[in-house]
């Protein structure tokens, strides 16, 4: 049984660099909240300390779970500023924005140029 999450997760697509003491990896955040992120395209062992680098700004985190090509990273502090926080806020606003009504295009009028009649031959 899963416990409910305390922070809303928002789908995003943010390219980042993940840096550890020994390595630097390229990945993409696909799921972001103020308390953590799901990263695809790379993975580190569970429990690893790392930093997520975006636009010259770093956010520290700990790998909570890891699979072959993705991982979940928990931030020690809630996001409150910086480019990653701004991306989260923009994604939240976009998700809550009303969708503009788009009427369907009108169906083409039916035209028939053959002989008229219903179930009868005309010749």
Would you summarize the structure shown here?
InterPro entries: PilZ_domain (IPR009875). The protein is mostly beta strands and 123 residues long.
Essential attributes:
PilZ_domain; 123 residues; PilZ domain-containing protein; cyclic-di-GMP binding; 1 helix; mainly beta; six-stranded antiparallel beta barrel; Thrombin, subunit H
Strands, helices and their partners?
Blueprint (H helix, E strand, L loop, with lengths): L9 E10 L4 E10 L2 E5 L8 E6 L2 E10 L3 E5 L8 H14 L27
Antiparallel strand pairs: 1-2, 1-4, 2-3, 3-6, 4-5, 5-6
Protein name: PilZ domain-containing protein
GO molecular function, one term: cyclic-di-GMP binding
Pfam families: PilZ
């Amino acid at each position: 049984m899963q416990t409910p999450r305390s922070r809303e997760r928002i789908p995003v697509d943010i390219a980042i660099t993940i840096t550890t003491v020994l390595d630097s990896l390229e990945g993409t955040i696909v799921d972001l909240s103020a308390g953590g992120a799901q990263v695809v395209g790379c993975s580190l062992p569970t429990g690893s300390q790392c930093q997520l680098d975006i636009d010259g700004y770093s956010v520290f985190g700990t790998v909570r779970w890891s699979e072959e090509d993705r991982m979940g990273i928990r931030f020690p502090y809630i996001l409150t500023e910086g480019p990653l926080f701004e991306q989260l806020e923009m994604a939240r606003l976009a998700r809550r924005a009303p969708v503009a009504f788009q009427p369907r295009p009108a169906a083409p009028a039916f035209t028939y140029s053959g002989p008229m009649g219903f179930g009868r031959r005309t010749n």
